[in-house]
Amino acid sequence: MTPRYDENDEPATVPEQLVRTxxxxxxRSVAEGAGDRPVLGVDTEVVLxxxxxxxxxxxxxxxxxxxxxxxxxxxxxxxxxxxxxxWEAVEYEVTRVxxxxxxxxxxxxxxxAAEWEGRAGAYAIQGRGAALVERIEGxxxxxxxxxxxxxVRLLAERMPGTYGFG
Length: 166
Fold this sequence. Notes:
By secondary structure, this protein is an alpha+beta fold. The chain has one domain (15-139): Maf protein (Alpha-Beta Complex). The chain contains five helices and five strands, in the order αββαββαβαα. The chain has helices spanning 15-31, 59-69, 104-112, 140-144, 148-158, and strands at residues 39-48, 51-53, 73-83, 88-99, 133-137. A five-stranded antiparallel beta sheet has the order 2-1-3-4-5. A hairpin with a 4-residue loop joins strand 3 (73-83) and strand 4 (88-99). Helix 2 packs across helix 3 (104-112). It starts with 14 loop residues before the first helix and ends in an 8-residue tail after the last helix.
């Protein structure tokens, strides 16, 4: 289901709280239509030096983000809200990603592919964006946008036996 949630970012909000708030808002926005089924809401942001790099609004903003990330290590934070009629679990995961040094030509080529559109930090690691990355520390799927290791842990803890865990 597509969430009916408007992401309004308060400038002073710490990134960990921001991703948890957005994940919870997304999950709650569709929970009513889910019946007894569990609902999962996820929000992912890229953070460098305390600054949140969300989804760029245009190619110029995307180029600026990629230039800032080039040759540096940043955090990818994903908030996860697992919601059922009886309980709600809200957590987050962090994965560290190091970009290789990028030339203006690298950035221009990536922008031309338009893969940056709708992507936090202006890249998609599961596509051509993988060529921008030198190293990753943590859950690769978290960078894609679903903190899978965190989700599996929560399912095993909260719903043992239901999904083949526990």
